[in-house]
Design a protein that fits this description.
By secondary structure, the protein is mainly beta. The chain has a single domain (15-123), classed as Sandwich (Jelly Rolls), CATH 2.60.120. It is built from no helices and 11 strands.
Length: 124
């Protein structure tokens, strides 16, 4: 399967964000999972960490990134590289939605607090 249309892409919600699964093993990808994330205005951050490096590219809006305790503004055209095993949070304190594309190697897992790491369903 080489093309995943916007209409066919599965959608998930978690912690006030909407995730649209694009590339993932269940959709034909072997090495890389890609999804679109939309964070509604006023959505607080959820601190988590990943087992593999994640890259996010902002498409629209403005968000606030906290990476290893350092805070940054994140807006359209910018990219964030999240190293593995590093505390990371993405909040939208603005009055407009924020959208980004995220890229994570297949097999990458997320962990919130001391909970068991899990593979996000949009990356499966």
């Amino acid at each position: 399967m080489g093309l995943i249309s916007a209409e066919a892409a599965p959608r998930f919600e978690m912690h006030g964000a909407e995730f649209t699964g694009l590339a993932a093993p269940s959709r034909g990808a072997r090495e890389t999972s890609v999804w679109r994330v939309r964070i509604a205005a006023g959505t607080p951050a959820v601190v988590h960490r990943l087992t593999r490096e994640e890259v996010l590219v902002a498409l629209s809006g403005r968000a606030q990134v906290t990476l290893a305790g350092e805070r940054f503004d994140f807006s359209a055209g910018a990219a964030v590289i999240v190293p593995p095993d590093t505390d990371f949070a993405l909040a939208n304190e603005s009055a407009e939605p924020f959208e980004a594309v995220a890229i994570l190697p297949v097999g990458g897992m997320a962990q919130v607090g001391n909970a068991t790491p899990f593979t996000p369903p949009w990356a499966v």
